Amino acid sequence: MSLFSVFNVAGSSMAAQSQRLNVVASNLANADSATSSTGEAYRSRQVVFRTIDVTADKAKGVKVAGVVNDPSPMRVVYDPKHPMANEKGYVTLPNVNVVDEMVNMMSASRSYQNSVDMMNVTKTLLQKALTIGQ
C-alpha cells in the first residue's frame, strides 16, 4: 500500500463518520417527538457501513451502505392529556435510546478525529521525506 493511499482511506472514513454524526443528531433531535412528517412517531435510524477499495492497490476504505430504520419497538407512555394519545390514553413515542445515541456520537467523533490525526501524521512523514534529499 502506498503512503498516499492513507489519504484515500482516511478520507472515506471521515465521510462515513460525518454521515453517522448527522444520523445521530437527527435521532437525538427527534427523541421526544410524538409525531413526524409522516404523522407517526419518529423511528430511530442507524447507519450501515461496508468496505470498499479506495485505490488501485486494493487499500480498503469504508462507505455508507445505507441508513436503515431501527426495528426495536416504539416507546408507549401513558399520558391521557397528550393531544396524540389514543383512546386508552397511551402515546407512542420514538424508539430512540438517548444513551445509545450519545455513545454512537462519541464513537463517531473519535473515529473522525483519528482519521484526521492519521492524515496529519502521514503529511508530516511525507514532508520529512522530502527534506531528506536537501
Automatic annotation (TrEMBL):
Residues 7-32 form the Flagellar basal body rod protein N-terminal domain. The keyword Glycosyltransferase does not apply. Residues 88-131 form the Flagellar basal-body/hook protein C-terminal domain. It is found in: Bacterial flagellum basal body. The keyword Amino-acid biosynthesis does not apply. GO terms for biological process: bacterial-type flagellum-dependent swarming motility. Keywords: Bacterial flagellum, Cell projection, Cilium, Flagellum. Its main location: other. GO terms for cellular component: bacterial-type flagellum basal body, rod. It holds the Pfam family Flg_bb_rod. Belongs to the flagella basal body rod proteins family. PANTHER family: FLAGELLAR BASAL-BODY ROD PROTEIN FLGC, FLAGELLAR PROTEIN. The basal body constitutes a major portion of the flagellar organelle and consists of four rings (L,P,S, and M) mounted on a central rod. The rod consists of about 26 subunits of FlgG in the distal portion, and FlgB, FlgC and FlgF are thought to build up the proximal portion of the rod with about 6 subunits each. This is Flagellar basal-body rod protein FlgC. The lineage of its organism: Bacteria, Pseudomonadati, Pseudomonadota, Betaproteobacteria, Nitrosomonadales.
